[in-house]
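Sample entry copied in:
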Amino acid sequence: MKTGKFICAVFLSVAGILLLADAGHARIIKGKVKSYYPSLVATALSPDGSAVTVPVGVIRVEELASGQKVYTGSYTMDVAPANKVMMLFQKVRADGSLKPKSVLRFRANSGVKDKTKQFTVAAGTTDIKLGMAMLFSKVVKPAFNPLQMVDNDSDGVSDFDDTDDDDDGISDDLDDDDDGDLVLDDDEDLDTDDDGLPDSVDSDDDDDGTDDHDDDDEIDDQDDDGISDSVDPDDDNDGIPDTLE
């Protein structure tokens, strides 16, 4: 089951999914959100599928000249240190299920222009403040870069300013796994259809108009090589192109 589908099964009657939280050692993440949605939740989503989800409480409502209402809300969550997370915002449907709307993206570090959606919640006593996020697109920039507030290798230099976040001796601009979690950074941010929502939370990651759960392209992979049969030139991985078989 894809992470996105698991999350969308969550109902608002549950205040939050605290699978990552550890009340004794948790790090606080907080921020504000401006959007067109009166009911939102904020989710700190880990690559392994575990998550912390909390409601976004509306603190202000504005009405535009068009009659469209804009809602400003705030959220606070506790996340256990050492977890890598992506900040996802989801709309609460009428039936209580959740629909992913936007994710945060920020500069990977001060030395490059690369962007990332992931950060490690390193141990610390100060809150990780993300400031205001304007949810009017699928990928949004936080007011405050979380990498300026965490220090993955505990060397006294924030991950944003550190040229070697995981202290493995490989400069981050050459390291395919900046945080040393054994998952390639590109894989963590993979977005097949380039719509701003990573595949891990995108319910239609090939943008063919069919939900992945019902999409034959997502299901049929005869040789289990990670490439759907519809685009795999060698479905059975026997070395002979399908066009010649």
